[in-house]
Amino acid sequence: MPKTKELPALSFIGIVDFSDKAKWLYASRSVKELLGYEPEELVGKPSIDLTHPDESAAVQRLHFDTITQDKAAVLAYLRLRHKDPLRGYVLCCVSRTIVHTVTAGSVSFAQPGPQAMRNASTAQEVQIISPTATNFQFRKWNDPSPMPPCHIPANLAGPSNQPITSLGSSQPVSIDDLFSNRPSSYPQLAAQSLRTLFILNRFSVRCDVIYCSNDCVLPTTAIMGRSFYDFVAAKDQELVRSWIDTCKSWGVNERGQPSDGGFGFGKFTVYVPGRNSSAETPPPQPPRHGPKPYSRENGKKKLYGKGEAQKAKGLVKYRHEDEILVDVIFSAHSDGLMAILRKA
């Protein structure tokens, strides 16, 4: 959906890698309105280079801690450089969630008010990097994380689970020592929880999938371009739709402009084979009065259409191997919805 002057972008979705400089892997189009860059200008470049010089070391440490502690739905307030030198550094609210081998989140303007309170009250952690953001510290009492780290199979963890050593040395060092020396790089970090990021079209009733980060939950080739609801079990479709509608309403500021709006957490069943969720309509019901249609099968009566009616209503259970119970984090942003899933 093209942006207009009446609907300015107030947040963008970003993905960075696990390297020490947190290189950009993806940035949605709204980055142009927030920081002045085209997405193509950022992809492959270090995101740390955009931070204020006084905050770079702290942001690098924050990036490292977020990965090694496998965090989800956490916020940080810091300054990022605008492309226009006259704009200087912009105070931003940055959300972060570890998604297996990448860090995914969003960047928005940091402005006091109800929107900032909603962001902070639904996050699992808030960290103030920039001294100018101290007025954002007031927030709801922190609840236990709804999506704590999960077990990583040995074949997916990689060699990076070994103790971290300083460059050129075989002796383990603490994280504090590692960053006090401010090395130019650190060893490749291990893959974390088997989470998958889906970016959905927030302006579509179907919520089509426009990005999928990996195949941990659903095969990328099967879900791209399809409605997210096609892969929600029929019995949970209305529930998930209500969650998404709620996140969309959160992700609208006081002027009615699409923005970021905090995190929503839930649990639902994924239907792996997928289906046509938009074509499900119940078959005609038999008359309430008069004889019920039946057929004789093994000497027993059987109602015609009952199975089809149950299936349309989501009452028929699919094969066990076709269903996966998942935890989900939903969040809304100016040009997309983020859904981060992992097997429950």
Automatic annotation (TrEMBL):
CDD domains: PAS. Residues 25-70 form the PAS domain. Gene3D superfamilies: PAS domain (3.30.450.20). Signal peptide: none annotated. InterPro entries: PAS, PAS-like_dom_sf, PAS_fold_3. It comes from the Eukaryota. It holds the Pfam family PAS_3. Residues 275-303 are annotated as: Disordered. This is PAS domain-containing protein. It comes from Thelephora terrestris.
